[in-house]
């Protein structure tokens, strides 16, 4: 099921569309964050689930808690709207790129 979602989102993102106007000069990143979110979010959930179950079965509670805190922090990046865009703009601004 997860593979199906990943393939559908990849095909949807790569499907050619007829532009109404000529493309602007430079790199077009419209929809890039949505594509990344749709592509990596299911993979992220699977990896987090498998690793968390591994830590629980091996009774490594300290590592489990550390992993869950890290997973929640990374999950916020994937699931909260505009975090990727704001972070990318902040990094680009810090590097002096407009």
UniProtKB/TrEMBL annotation:
Keywords: Membrane, Transmembrane, Transmembrane helix. The chain crosses the membrane at residues 39-57, 64-81. This is Uncharacterized protein. It comes from Sphaerisporangium siamense.
């Amino acid at each position: 099921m997860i593979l199906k979602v990943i393939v559908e989102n990849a095909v949807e993102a790569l499907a050619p569309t007829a532009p109404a106007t000529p493309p602007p000069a430079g790199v077009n990143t419209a929809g890039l964050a949505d594509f990344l979110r749709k592509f990596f979010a299911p993979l992220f959930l699977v990896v987090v689930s498998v690793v968390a179950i591994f830590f629980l079965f091996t009774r490594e509670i300290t590592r489990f808690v550390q992993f869950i805190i890290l997973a929640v922090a990374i999950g916020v990046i994937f699931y909260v709207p505009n975090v990727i865009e704001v972070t990318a703009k902040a990094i680009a601004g810090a590097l002096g790129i407009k």
